[in-house]
Write a structure and sequence with these properties.
The protein has about 450 residues and is an alpha/beta fold. It has two domains: about 120 residues, Alpha-Beta Complex (Aspartate Aminotransferase, domain 1), CATH 3.90.1150; about 260 residues, Type I PLP-dependent aspartate aminotransferase-like (Major domain) (Aspartate Aminotransferase, domain 2, 3-Layer(aba) Sandwich). Helices cover about 35% and strands about 15% of the residues.
Length: about 450
């Protein structure tokens, strides 16, 4: 809500300073037919701050609160427990108010946070180097495609059908301005991924192959054959991870030959936050570091021999010649990166692995129970904490019907792919450590009722 502290006296003095006698005189050059001669239709009249707060609170109560009902939504944004200590630390004044670290001599704390974040991301994704964060997973994915073009000097990206459609949409939007060609296909409701299609499509004009891991249906592919096929023609493999908790249990993409690994870090430390802000992860091989977008915080020794931190690399147009820049991204998601790093530190390597085991075990439990419902088919033969069901009825109205029963019962593929009727009965369900036995019972009961 905007707060306008000016009094009538303040306004008169401001108008007098610019030589206007009134507000109407200030806007005298605006054509009469462009000015409103009546209140805007549908908007309530002026009200006090207290009254507005009460009205908005009443409206907010109509929403279903994620933490108060059985919650099985995923598809790129996941509900995990974030320890209270994470928020306590990131709200400290030295972190919350810190701006971009242009001057290392007064930004050592911020730079060290970014350095530690990079170290954690590089280890998590199985790469040699990571940057100091991106805006979110979708823009990081596009930046990886652009980076592959610069490295290979080719402009055709082969995109897996399992890549999140929102990520695909961002890439298509940007490709309109860069001339990149995207080879994209919709997913199929089957257990097998499209790895064979990707390998067959690689040729001498391919800059990169983009694969989500696990993919939009929750399937997990071995990336090694795809990496080998891409490298045989001089192309790169870009892996996209939207659920980083999975890497506490499954092999990191960098260890399977991925050249660039990007993703969304929201699941660790950040929370759902009504859709943002989130934090993009970006890691690659050291030999490609000068083509990496964003910033790189590095460790050094100062004149007195003490450990210090600096911005080692910042290949963006604000710092160097525009034609030499790798990206026009102007900042990083520093506070969200800090939240990610704090949560990762609290978990530790063993804790992340244990958290991943709990997620997988709960997901297997839910998949087995729902797969026994009449007419319901489990699509996956392997998954982490997210899987796809093929329902006997259309999934989108089924989701709405479950909401009416107080259950947020997954994401319908019909919502993500409205123009693909073959996917209309697909329902993606995510299960995390926040799900209780009572939640599972409620989901099973609701799905049984609405599919009957």
């Amino acid at each position: 809500m905007r707060y306008l502290p000016l009094s009538d006296t303040d306004r008169r003095e401001m108008l007098a300073a610019i030589g206007a006698g009134s507000i109407d005189e200030l806007f005298r050059d605006v054509p009469a037919d462009a000015l409103l001669d009546r209140p805007i239709a549908g908007l309530p009249p002026h009200a006090s701050e207290l009254s507005v707060e009460r009205q908005l609170t009443a409206m907010a109560r109509k929403n279903m609160v994620a933490g108060e009902v059985p919650f099985f939504l995923g598809c790129g944004a996941y509900r995990h427990h974030v320890p209270a200590s994470v928020d306590h630390i990131i709200q400290r004044g030295e972190f919350l108010t810190a701006y971009t670290p242009y001057q290392p001599e007064i930004a050592q704390g911020t730079l060290q946070v970014l350095f530690e974040f990079q170290t954690q991301v590089a280890r998590l994704l199985g790469c040699e180097v990571a940057n100091a964060s991106m805006y979110d997973g979708s823009t990081a994915c596009w930046e990886a495609i652009g980076m592959a073009r610069r490295i290979t000097r080719r402009s055709k990206a082969i995109v897996s059908s399992g890549l999140h459609p929102h990520y695909v949409a961002v890439a298509k939007t940007m490709a309109k301005f860069t001339g990149d060609t995207l080879d994209v296909a919709p997913p199929v409701l089957e257990a097998a991924t499209d790895a064979e299609r990707l390998i067959r499509a690689i040729d001498e004009t391919t800059s990169c192959v983009v694969v989500q891991y696990p993919d939009i249906l929750g399937r997990i592919a071995d990336l090694t054959p795809i990496a080998d096929a891409a490298h045989a023609t001089g192309a790169l493999l870009v892996a996209v991870v939207t659920e980083p908790v999975a890497l506490g249990l499954i092999k990191a993409p960098g260890e399977m030959g991925a050249d660039i690994v990007v993703g969304e870090g929201q699941a660790i430390g950040v929370g759902l936050q009504f859709g943002g802000p989130y934090v993009g992860l970006f890691a690659t091989r050291e030999k490609f570091v000068r083509q990496m977008p964003g910033r790189l915080a590095g460790e050094t020794i100062d004149a007195e021999g003490k450990r210090g931190f600096v911005l080692t690399l910042s290949t963006r147009e604000q710092h160097i010649r525009r034609e030499k820049a790798t990206s026009n991204i102007c900042t990083n998601a520093g506070l969200c990166a800090l939240a990610f790093s704090v949560h990762m530190t609290l978990l530790g390597e063993a804790g992340l692995g244990r958290l991943a085991e709990i997620n997988h075990a709960r997901a297997v439990q839910v998949a087995e129970r729902l797969g026994r419902l009449p007419g319901v088919e489990l699509v996956n033969d392997g998954f982490f904490n997210e899987f796809t069901l093929k329902l006997p009825v259309e999934a989108r109205p089924t989701v709405h019907a479950m909401v009416e029963r107080g259950v947020l019962g997954g994401v319908s593929l019909g919502r993500l792919y409205p123009d693909q009727p073959t996917l209309a009965n697909g329902l993606v369900i995510a299960v995390t450590e926040t799900v209780t036995d009572e939640d599972i019972d409620a989901l099973e009961s609701a799905l049984r009722e609405v599919c009957a």
